[in-house]
Every structure is written in C-alpha cells, then in structure tokens.
C-alpha cells in the first residue's frame, strides 16, 4: 500500500497519521504537504505518527529526507515544532537529527505521552 497521511487539527496541534509502505519520495512529498497544511491553518506544532508505516529507508535516504524537509521549511520561513511518534526501524531519529542540525526544532518519541508533553512546552508567541 502506498504511503498516505491523514491530517487532523486538534487544540492548536496538527496531528498527521501516516500509514502504508515508506519510500523517500512519498515521505518527502507527504511531509511537505503536512507543513503546508500547518501553515495554512496557522498551527506551529505538529505531531507525525508513523506507527502504521511499514519498511525502512536506507541511511542515505534518511539523510536526504531530513535535509530536504529542513530546506523546504527554511525556504518558506516556517517555524514549526515537530514531534515524530514511531517505532524502529522505520523511525530511528536519524532524519530528525539531520533536520535538527539544520535548525529545525524536532524530536522523535516512542511513547505518545512523551511526544505530547514535549509539544506542550512550546507556546505560541503572543
């Protein structure tokens, strides 16, 4: 099954739930879509759940994923806090590390409450 994502707005948080078989191209496309949706809805906190994603990207693909999505966010002057909730080996944190090294505020979690708690510390500036 191709990678797909369902998006839901919940109390100032964009919840994106991914499912299906992962490929680099699909992951980049869908994460860009999630970022665009968050920007359109005026939300700066995103929780991407990848628990229903199958497969594993190579190390170089994970690097490319983090680099491409970070570049997309920076070019569009987006300011997001992005938490990923997943399982190994699909979600191992390497792509997030690459993005974080490029200035994106992101973390990977393996427990939903930890992800929600991390996002809760980020308040929208008033």
Q: If classified by CATH, what would the architecture be? A: 2-Layer Sandwich
Radius of gyration based on Cα positions:
13 Å
Based on secondary structure, the structural category is alpha/beta
H/E element sequence: EEHEHEHEH
Number of helices: 4
- Overall pLDDT level: 94
How many distinct beta strands?
Answer: 5
- Classified by CATH, the class is Alpha Beta
Spans where pLDDT lies below 50 across 5 or more residues: none
- Name the shape in a single word: globular
Strand content is 25-35%
Kindly report the name of the CATH homologous superfamily.
STAS domain
Largest sheet: 5 strands, mixed
Describe this protein with a few key phrases.
single chain; 126 residues; alpha/beta; Transcription Regulator spoIIAA; five-stranded mixed β-sheet; 4 helices; 29% strand
Fold and architecture overview:
The chain has 126 residues and is of the alpha/beta class. The protein has a single domain, classed as Transcription Regulator spoIIAA (2-Layer Sandwich). The chain has four helices and five strands, in the order ββαβαβαβα. A five-stranded mixed sheet has the order 1-2-3-4-5, sandwiched between helices. Helix 1 runs parallel beside helix 2 and helix 2 (59-75) packs parallel to helix 3 (94-100). The protein starts with a strand and ends in a 6-residue tail after the last helix. The mean pLDDT is 94.
